Amino acid sequence: MSENVSQTSPPWNIYTKIAFRFFFLLLPLFIILNNNGAFPFLSGILQLPSLVLHHFIPWFSKHVINYNYDFTITTNGSGDTSYDWVLLLFIFLVSVIGCIIWSVFDRKRKGYNAAYYWLVVLVRFYLAFTLILYGLLKVIKLQFPDPSLNRLLQPFGDASPMGLAWTFLGFSKGYNIFMGVVEVSAVLLLFRRTVVVGAFLSLAATVHVMSMNYFFDVPVKLLSTALVVMSLFILAPHFLTLYRFFIKYESQQLNKMYRPAFKKRWFYISAYSLKYLYITASMITLLYTFIQQTKTYGSVAPKAFLYGIYNVEDMRLNDKTLLPLTTDSIRWKQMVINYTGYARIKKMNDSTVNFTTVFDQKKKELVLKSTAKDSSKYVLSYHLIGKDKLVFSGLSDQDAISVSFKRKDLNDFRLINRGFHWVSEYPYNR
After folding, report:
1. Is the pTM of this model over 0.85?
2. Does residue 11 sit in helix, strand or coil?
C-alpha cells in the first residue's frame, strides 16, 4: 500500500500530532479492554486481556492509587463499577505516558495519515456495531420489556430512577422501534461515502442514551460517554466546514477522506470482499441470536404457567379463617406469578416473600419454597375454577393451609387500558 494523498497533504501541526498520538492509544485500549460484544466472532479473543486485568487492576488500585473496593466485583450488569473506573484511569495514564514518550522519539514526523485512517476505521466499526447491537435489541424489544406485573403493583414513589426509566421506555413498542431504527442507522458508518451522515445520527443516538444514563442514574455512563466521544472524534476533521455551512451559511464542501491506495487490484478486491463478508455475517448472526432470544425473553416469549396477579379472597390455616387485618404478617394478601419458576407473595402487612415454584400439571400439584433464610416450604394442590378463580390447599410443615384467589384483570390498570388517542379534548394526565 502507498499513501495516495500523503505527498500533497500539508504537514500536521504539533497540537494535531500530539492529540492524534493520545487518541491513537486511548481509543484502541478502551475498545479492546471494554469490549461490549461489538465485534461478533472476535469476542472470545477480546476477552483474553480481562483474564490478566482482573488480577492487575485490583493490585494497581490498592498499591498505586490507594483505592480499596470489593475486588471480587468486576464489570457486570453495571458498567460503572469501581473496577471500570480504575481501569479507565489506568488506560488514561497509559495513553498520556505513551503519548509523551512517542512525542519525544517521533517529533520529526510530518503526519500520520495512514495510521489515522486505520484508527478511524476501528472507531467506526466499534461504534457502528455497538449501536447496531443495542438498536436491534430495541427494535425486537428485548432491552426494555413491557412493565412486569411486579412493576405494575409497585408504588410509583418506590421506583428507582433507573426503574422509572425502564418502565417508561418499556411501555411503548413504537418508541422502542423509533430509538432502535436511529441506532441501527449507525450502519452508515461502515461505508466511506456515508460516514459523516452516520456519525451525525450516531451522535444524536449516543447523546440521547448518555443523557438517560446520567439523569436516570443508569450505570452505563462510561460506555455511553465513550460512544459520544467516538462520534465527535469521527466528525472532528469536519467541524470547521460544518460550522461555516450551518452557522455562517457559506458554501462548503467536505474534504475527501484519506484512503490508502492498493497497488495490486487483487488485494483491493480481497480486502473489500472480506469487509462486506464480515458485515453481512455479523448482521445475520446478531439477528439470528436476538430472534432466538425472543423465544425466552421479551414481550412475545411464552408466559409462565398461571401467569397473573391473584388477590386473596379467603385464607384458612388449620381450619381457622384468617381475617384480612392490615397488621397480619401471616395472612396472604396477593400472589404474583410473573416468571417461570418464581412467585411473589405479599402479606397483609405489605411485607413480601419470594418463592421458587415447581408445578406438576399432571398431578395438579405445586411446591413453593421460600428464597429467604427460613426456607419455608409449601406442598399444595391447586385447582382452577373458570378463568379467574384459583384455589390452593395443602401443607406448610405441619400446618394445613387453604387459599382462594381471584385473578386480577390486567386491563384494569390505567397504564394498559388508556391506549392511543388522536383527539383529546383535555389532557389526560393522571
Report:
1. yes
2. coil
